[in-house]
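for the writeup, i need someone to sanity check this before i put it in the appendix. the sequnce is what the collaborator sent (i think, or maybe the updated version? ugh). structure was predicted straight from it, no edits. if anything looks off just tell me and ill rerun, i have time this weekend
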Amino acid sequence: MDLSLFFAGTAGSVPTPRRGLPAVLLRRGGDRILFDCGEGTQRQLSRSIGLTDVDVVFLTHFHADHWLGLPGMLKSFALRDRTAPLALYGPPGIRQLVAQLKFVLGTLPFPFTVTELEAGEAVEFGDYEISSFNVRHRGVAFGYCILEDDRPGRFDAELAASLGVAPGPDFGRLQRGETVDGVTPEQVMGPGRYGRKIVLSGDTAPCEALADAAHHADLLVHEATFLAADADRAATTRHSTATQAALTAKEADVGLLALVHLSGRYPGRAVLDEARETFERTVLPRDFDHIDVPFPEKGDPELVRWEPPARIAP
């Protein structure tokens, strides 16, 4: 099952010529789940992978740079005669926010549900879940953890055959946990394997809840609004420095740290270099880059740079 994060917007509170406002798209199989929807998100998607029919949107908090693109995107879906349902989740207060947008949204032609989550609550998506947790920002703010179910161990086909199990349907029965002709699954299945885990910090100052949620995550996407030289300002606004993000990644022993919510006041290289002094496995996605997260036995998470489609000569 393919799993990746597409970075539609990686800027902080103000867009820059090269970075749009916060928006990250989770792609897993056929699922398309958007985390935050800053102003211009639909334009960012249209310029890159296309304005995909997002299934679900999660908002981290209600500062305008994280949701102001939502009304326009919903109206675009309506104008495209969308019929598929769309679900919106977020912290307490999200219903009030949507109610205040009613005069803009009007009546949408597709089912649209709004659900307020409590910290620690999980939304199930078949064989994975997305759970919320409190972070330290101004007002109620969530981070999110995407966690797949654990997977069964590897099936040893050669061993099963040597024990007298015929290849074919009986192999499938063993892998589903059934005993076949006296051969138990434990005899031919390796140890169970953890599912993949991705954690998104949202906007936050350093906090224990985030480090706990990110423990052994394959990928941590963490804001880095400031450099260490401006740590006092970071503390006042309840944001993080690049060093603080790296310390969280190091404490949580994550596979890869990706820094977002970047301020135009700093060169990107300075942000990356500062974080790598503490945590070497750090990357700095640009808009339209994506990170592939394979199963651990198939490799490590990898940042893939965006390559715009080649132009066709007139």
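The mean pLDDT is 94. Residues 242-252 form the longest helix (11 residues).
thx in advance!!
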